[in-house]
Amino acid sequence: MSRKKIEYLSSFTLGALLAVSGIQGAFAADAQELVKPCADCHGKDGASTEPEVPIIGGFSAPYTTDSMIAYQGKERPCPESEYLSGDKKGQKTTMCDIAKELSENDIEKIAAWFAAKPFVRATQESDPALAAKGEKIHEDNCKKCHADGGSLASDDSGILAGQWMPYLRQAFKEFSAGDRPMVKKMKPKYEKLEAADIEALVHYYGSFK
Ligand code: HEC
Ligand code: HEC
To answer: Do 27 and 110 lie in a common domain?
Structure first.
């Protein structure tokens, strides 16, 4: 038998074995368990309906993974937040405490799970004149890494288009205060913006329906 044929056969056998033994099913159930508490704040499939809590369904796996690792190391600020539903409703926690409980393997599973969900844009009001101003600022400074209004998960830079405006204001506040690190090439672009420019950007991203 040729080497190729042996490889083909063995991978086929492995696939069949996995299917029979239910390992693939176990993986799915596991991810399902891991993401359950996330829904208490981030909503079903990460489509948050709460303006202070970011929509995370549809983020690329690398972006979610990097964010969770940053929270584990407290490299990102961890504002206190409250469970909005579920068994722990009303209890306070932070993303850093949540991330601390997860292994690298857990994070990979969680990130893959959210990457397979759609990013459901927030329903919110934005000011058209400010949004137009924000679009220009975005085109001049930000589109290189946040293409199409920051709507592409594949940029691995989060998704800005249609994200909740109150969350975006909070993220900008963290960048401006120097509490949340920025990638090297975002920093010079960001630092030349004034407060009014940032508010215009928030309206631009909020204008995506
Ligand atoms: C108690 C509420 C709560 C729970 C539970 C929770 N989160 Fe969060 N999460 C938040 C809030 C609030 C923020 C925004 C924090 C900030 O401003 O940095 C956030 C931020 C994030 C971010 C960063 C989003 C971005 O745009 O950069 C990711 C990723 C994330 N959460 C993933 C998860 C995952 C995965 C789980 C479940 C394992 C989870 N969260 C559970 C409240 C929660
Ligand atoms: C050189 C590439 C680059 C440029 C230019 C850039 N960014 Fe970013 N941006 C990133 C990356 C990568 C991330 C995600 C990593 C992180 O958390 O820092 C990010 C994260 C963000 C976030 C946080 C998203 C979230 O979900 O929390 C916001 C908001 C943002 N950028 C806005 C901007 C704005 C506004 C500009 C233009 C003034 C800009 N960026 C320019 C690469 C860039």
So the answer is: yes
